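User: Hi! I'm a student and our assignment asks us to look at how structure tokens line up with a sequence. Could you show me two examples?

Assistant: Happy to help. In each example below, the sequence comes first and the structure tokens follow. Example one:
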Amino acid sequence: MTQQTTNYRFALTALTSLFFMWGFITCMNDILIPYLRLLFDLNYAQSMLIQFCFFGAYFIVSVPAGHLIGKIGYKSGIVTGLMISGAGCVLFYPAAQAEVYGLFLLALFVLASGITILQVAANPYVTVLGDSRTASSRLTMTQAFNSLGTTVAPFFGAWLIFGGVADPEVTGVSKDTVSLPYFILAGTLVLMAFIFMRLKLPNMGKVDPTEYIPSDAKAWKQKHLMLGAVGIFVYVGAEVGIGSFLAMYIAEPSIGDMSMSKASHYISWYFGGAMVGRFLGAAVMQKISGNRVLAFNAVAAVILVATTMLSSGALAMWSLLFVGLCNSIMFPTIFSLALQDLKQCRGQGSGILCLAIVGGAIVPLIQGFLADRVGIQMAFIVPLVCYVYIAYYGMSGYRPRASQMTQEAANAAE
């Protein structure tokens, strides 16, 4: 075993902790939504402003984050992202004390800005730590630990935020219970930042000004990258939209007929399916191409979402929960396929793809407006359409076209 292989494995092991943490934090939003909906008496669309502000940060911060990573490298970018996320968590305390919905949204925006920097640094870092042919498998494996975080978070969040209340819709919620979990997260994030400062990781991510770098943002002209960005947009939107409505949907009398507190625990089944699927997918994609697995999972998701829209009771509930299993390999596979053949523009490409995570802000908001008008069940037509597009990307849209960057690089060398 070479020294380089050993260093890469150590770096990948360290990076899995980041994927766990941002999965945990992102899933906490799904508990925060019903909590703040009760605290401020919000409708569905107003509740989705939580996801709008959180994922809206990706749209605003991703491109600047890509430039930042190019200057300071992946490791320093990770430390920066962790510290900013920790600051966002601390802001939950004054927001809770003031009982101002806008302050909660501001805290979420700051928290998500740090997570965005982590995403822009960590995702391409994983893809370059090893053989490019197994990049999808590697990123899927690390994303499995992201799903582990989303699986654990609902139990942790429901217990601390709802304070063990059996039926918060009847007894109400306390403004103080939201502060403790985010204080714990703040301390953990700052501790991780100091640990990463001390770790000896491969020095990657900085852009060498002496290398040829395509001008005029040529990464934006790569068709498979831009179609992949749309794929990331609709995937994140669909996953977040389903997760955001899950507790409220399961609590419906025609579906699960249970309290919001009890329904919140079922969010773990949704994200737990994604975790199991990612471990399985990492192994499967060593043998089967990522685009084929992506297309298969997307078609299965379409069938499951259609089933939940057209049924009721246990069938409607479990068909939606099993969509999590289909989600498993989608993000890392779309991400890896979209970065094919980008060469010196991988950092810029990663920034564009992370920019597309804004789908988590827009798609759930559209779903929320629709739910207020046609009902929560029929509003799932929005994620269904998203999965139809992902199936197309896995079947055809992922293929790199003739690269303009390659031609320009040749011209520059002449």
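Example two works the same way, sequence first and then tokens:
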Amino acid sequence: MADRNNNPDAAVKDPDDWVTGDEPPTAAQESYLHTLAQEAGEQVPEGLTKAEASRRIDELQAETGRGR
């Protein structure tokens, strides 16, 4: 069994596997998503799920050079 203290990626789950992935995004996700979209000159689609918002955040982080 992997030690999560030595491997931080061990705790990362694919958003498709989240139990709450079909729920609306959190306030923090919404805020960060809008910030990233503004920086990228893009619009945030309405009605995203928590999992969809997470994937879009990852995409926009790569596009804008933010995040990881």
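Here is something you could point out in your write-up. The longest helix spans residues 50-64.
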